[in-house]
Amino acid sequence: MLEKLSDVLGASMSPMPAGQSVLGSALPYRLEPDSGEKLSEVMRVLSAFEESVLVTGGMTKLRGLNAVKETRFQLSCCGLSGIDECDAADGVLLARAGTPLRDLVKATEESGWVLPFDPPGDEGTVGGVLATGMCGPRRLGFGAVRDSVLGLETVLANGDRTRCGARVVKNVTGYDMAKLYVGSFGTLAVIEGAWLRLKPKPNSVVQWSSSLNDSDDPHGLALAASRRSSARSVALLSEDLAREEPAFGEATRSNSSWRLLVEFSGDRAATRNDTDWLGQRTKSDSVGHEAIEALGRVQGLDQKRGFRVRLHLLPSALPKACGLLRDAGFRVLAYPEPAVIYGFLDDREGRESECLGFGFSALETVVEQTKATWVIESMPEASPFARDKFEMASGVPLMNALKLRFDPQLILNRGCFFDSASMVNK
Questions:
Q1: What CATH number does the domain containing 321 carry?
Q2: Are strands 258-266 and 231-238 parallel, antiparallel or unpaired?
Q3: Is 25 part of any domain?
Q4: pLDDT, tens digit, for every residue of 281-292?
Q5: CA distance 336 to 387
Q6: CA–CA dist 216, 283 (Å, integer)
């Protein structure tokens, strides 16, 4: 098998450096095809020998996955890089999966458009953003990642190359398979390239910061702000979290508990009207666009000790959930629309087992009282708690069934999203 892979890839197949591990496993070989044809051939070889593979992009979001199982190969999509087409007239773009996100942002800005992706951090790739479906602070204005996908080119686990969607929506018939692949963590197919829909540049963008107390009804104000016509990003942070990022500025009140960050975007009349609305309800200071970029950095903080968790719930449950988490020692970042909370629990005293045990107990209380679902996004690799990071996520049984239909040999990302042993037993 190694000889066959070497025949396909040549120098693009290389041994991994000694001692380097990925998701807790030492993977001996790295495969990096530079074309869709080679990617297809690699998958055919792996499928023929029933060898599983870990599919990666920029490797910036691996902490959000479970440990890889029974795998010797890392399949990097970074060799599939480049922008094949950027149509400034129609606002559409075709990019290879391994294209760095920074390159894509630069190309779209130069063409007079905005790329509606803002995942936490800016080190990832197009394929990585699509595979994780990861949204950042501007999810409110940009929409979900899948909303910007017109079509995808993919390679299935058996090596078949497929295409779903198209450059324009009117050319598409049948099921919208692209929406299925987005957010599937590379478990159903390897993304080769994507047609993306861009957004026009707004005429006016303003950012505001407000310091609030619990008596100011911060969650109600944040929810109301998120429903203003020009709202592109609205976030509520516990003050202890806001103080750690200089871009958020100083608190305007010495005893504040929360920091509200708002970005209005659109035509000047709309942003001016919404700015006046906010000013009538709370004292706000102007901050630069760096504050919203900093939100992405905070959202994507890797927890070297302790853990980071993402909760999904109804907007009406935000005050209760935020209060319970904060009382349990979590630092909190909440987006009111759609209602998502990021909780950060640090083990600052070196008692990791006690810290994590207390944190999971607090999460169970939040779930019981608010009906939230949660996903562990970051956790130390050497954690004493062996938890399935997706055990409380919604839709996992359906994804299990789809996995067995698309990849019955469990070739792609074995164990990272699903418990492969339990799937085989089914």
A1: 3.30.70.2740
A2: antiparallel
A3: yes
A4: 999 999 988 999
A5: 28
A6: 11
